Task: structure prediction
Amino acid sequence: MTDTDCIFCKIVAGDIPSTKVLETERVLAFRDLYPKAPTHVLVIPKDHYANAAEVAKADPALTGEVVAAAAEVAAAEGIDGTGWRLIANTGPHSGQDVFHVHFHVVGGKPLGPMVSA
Ligand code: AMP
Result:
């Protein structure tokens, strides 16, 4: 499944460049273009789903593969010991900008409160 207007589908297709850090048959991880922490990697299913709720409903196994890949990325980045955060912004109140589900792996420094007041 691909959405021709989706920027992350274009990254999966190789039509837009990215800095890949991990790839499996169904999952891709690449560096965020505007990192918010020393480590900031986006982990996505290659198939297009708009958000975490959609992929979880349609393909729970794939959702698990994405989360497992996120943990692998954290270990490869050397932040599994210090800790990291997994964020999947979903819908308007979250500030989701790109509507191809992506899990942010962020870490490499103390991240502060989970949600600002
Ligand atoms: P969100 O606000 O959760 O939808 O996050 C979207 C993320 O995608 C932001 O952190 C952006 O910096 C990142 N982003 C947007 N375009 C690209 C791109 N071409 N390559 C890598 N990261 C991107």
In short: The pocket of adenosine monophosphate is lined by residues 7, 16, 18, 32-34, 42, 89, 95-98 (CB under 6 Å).
